[in-house]
């Protein structure tokens, strides 16, 4: 005797639900193993990066072996290799680890953290010749090329007048001179990375027609580089002509002929 049709339908529905649940669990298992690690750039070989979860009886390997990392097949521990990770070349590794049969993939992301290992520099193409009109008001700015730092973090800038000492040792600053003796100051916007040279006090070309400035860029590890900028003060017709004496006396001799 056959079971009733309604009973068969119920069994079939239960079977479908169970099958769907098993497939869902399998799918979640296949993609749920995901790990995120961080390691400093230039870390020495055999530096511990992290450990993935492993299962008894399984071995593990990278799908594509990265030169910078190695994986212990039994323990799941990830270490650095002799090839140092360089953040400036690549800051995030997206790796796939595969288990032995039955194979299931594990996602591994390794973020390479910055180390301040690069000295800032001034590109050789920067414009170091600047000019202001002597009639420009205080607060007038010109954009100047900024230094470049391959590392993350902010640069600090300092401007000093060029002296004999600063020419022989630019990193020493102004050789005792203060930037307050200059009619200029630096204005750096870290959000836009724009560097401005700004007039801080009134200019007078008749008193000084040009300036040599030593501008130093320093990173967060106090590594610094400098550039020498020349600033020319342009003339404005702001002085009335004057005689060099208040008055002069002249004697004129002439003859008058009578007809």
Topology:
Elements: H1 5-32, E1 34-40, E2 48-51, E3 60-62, E4 69-71, E5 77-80, E6 92-99, E7 105-113, E8 129-133, E9 141-144, E10 156-161, H2 164-168, E11 184-189, E12 194-199, E13 210-218, E14 224-234
Parallel strand pairs: 1-7, 8-14
Antiparallel strand pairs: 2-5, 3-6, 4-5, 6-7, 9-12, 10-13, 11-12, 13-14
Rounded mean pLDDT score: 83
Helical amount among residues, as a percent range?
10-25%
Give the total of beta strands: 14
Per the CATH scheme, the topology name of the largest domain is Immunoglobulin-like
The CATH superfamily name of the largest domain is Cadherins
Overall spatial form: rod-shaped
Query: What is the structural class?
Result: mainly beta
The top level CATH class name of the largest domain: Mainly Beta
Query: What is the CA-CA span between the terminal residues?
Result: 170 Å
How would a crystallographer describe the biggest sheet? 4 strands, mixed
Uncertain regions: pLDDT < 50 for 5+ in a row? 12-32
Q: Return the domain count.
A: 2
Q: DSSP helix count?
A: 2
CATH second-level architecture of the largest domain: Sandwich
Radius of gyration: 38 Å
Oligomer: single chain
Helix/strand order: HEEEEEEEEEEHEEEE
Strand content: 25-35%
